[in-house]
C-alpha cells in the first residue's frame, strides 16, 4: 500500500518520467494547477540579505540550459514551512485533523484551524535562525536544505511543531524527522544522470554566493490556491 501522504501522478502520466507532483500541482509543461489548502509558514522577507541573494539564484536558474526541466516559484512565494496544514486533494487520517470528518470542506477545516490558532501563543520570540547545509535531492524539485542554526533554535522549532500537532490534531508519520527547506522550483521531468550531475554541480557552485545563515520572522497561518502564492491570514501570537 502506498504511503497515504505521498501524491501520485495522474494515471495517464508515465510514473518513471514524471515527479510525483506533476499532474497535481503542475502540468507536464509547467502550467500551474489548482491545489488549495492551508499551512503554517515563515515567508522569507524581501528585506533580508538571503532574499536578495536568492534572486540571483532564481535568475541564474531561469537562464540555465536545463530551465525547461523545471518550473520556478515566484520570489513572493518563498518560505519555510513550520507545520504542514491540509490540502483539499489529499484526505487521509494522517494528513487531516482527527476531529474533522474526512469529507468536511476545506473551508470548514480552515475555519477550525483559524479558531484554534487565533489565541495560540507560540511561546517564543522571532526570529528563527537557520543555516543552509545543502540542497534537497533533485527528485521532485530544487530546494535549499536548511537546519536550525543553534540547539536552542532546534528546540524551539521542534517544540513548536509538536504543540501545533497536538492543537490541530494532525500527526504526520514523519513529523519528528521533518526536514526544513525552502523550495525554489518543481522539476517537471525526471533528470537523467548527466542532467542531474550538471545541475547539482551548478547549484553547489552557486551556494557560495548565498549567506550561510539567515533569519525568519514569526510564523504565519496562510491559505493558498496553488503553489505560487500563500495568503497570510495572521501571524501566530498576534491578537485576531
TrEMBL record:
Domain of life, source organism: Eukaryota
Pfam families given in the database record: 2H-phosphodiest
Domain DUF1868: 25-135
Extent of the signal sequence: none
Classification via InterPro entries: 2H-PEstase_DUF1868, Cyclic_Pdiesterase
Name of the protein in question: DUF1868 domain-containing protein
Amino acid at each position: 500500500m502506498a504511503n497515504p501522504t505521498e501524491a501520485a501522478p495522474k494515471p495517464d502520466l508515465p510514473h518513471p518520467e514524471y515527479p510525483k507532483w506533476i499532474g497535481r500541482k503542475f502540468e507536464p509543461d509547467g502550467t500551474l494547477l489548482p491545489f488549495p489548502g492551508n499551512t503554517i509558514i515563515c515567508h522569507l522577507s524581501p528585506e533580508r540579505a538571503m532574499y536578495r541573494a536568492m534572486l540571483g539564484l532564481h535568475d541564474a536558474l531561469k537562464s540555465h540550459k536545463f530551465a525547461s526541466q523545471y518550473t520556478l516559484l515566484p520570489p513572493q512565494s518563498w518560505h519555510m514551512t513550520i507545520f504542514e496544514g491540509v490540502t483539499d486533494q489529499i484526505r487521509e487520517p494522517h494528513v487531516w485533523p482527527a476531529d474533522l470528518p474526512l469529507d468536511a470542506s476545506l473551508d470548514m477545516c480552515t475555519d477550525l484551524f483559524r479558531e484554534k490558532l487565533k489565541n495560540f501563543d507560540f511561546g517564543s520570540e522571532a526570529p528563527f535562525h537557520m543555516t543552509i547545509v545543502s540542497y534537497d535531492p533533485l527528485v521532485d524539485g530544487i530546494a535549499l536544505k536548511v537546519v536550525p542554526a543553534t540547539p536552542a533554535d532546534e528546540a524551539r522549532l521542534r517544540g513548536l511543531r509538536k504543540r501545533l500537532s497536538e492543537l490541530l490534531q494532525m500527526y504526520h508519520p514523519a513529523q519528528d524527522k521533518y526536514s526544513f527547506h525552502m523550495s525554489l522550483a518543481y522539476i517537471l521531468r525526471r533528470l537523467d544522470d548527466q542532467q542531474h550531475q550538471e545541475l547539482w554541480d551548478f547549484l553547489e557552485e552557486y551556494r557560495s554566493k548565498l549567506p550561510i545563515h539567515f533569519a525568519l520572522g514569526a510564523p504565519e497561518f496562510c491559505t493558498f490556491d496553488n503553489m505560487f502564492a500563500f495568503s497570510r491570514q495572521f501571524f501566530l501570537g498576534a491578537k485576531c
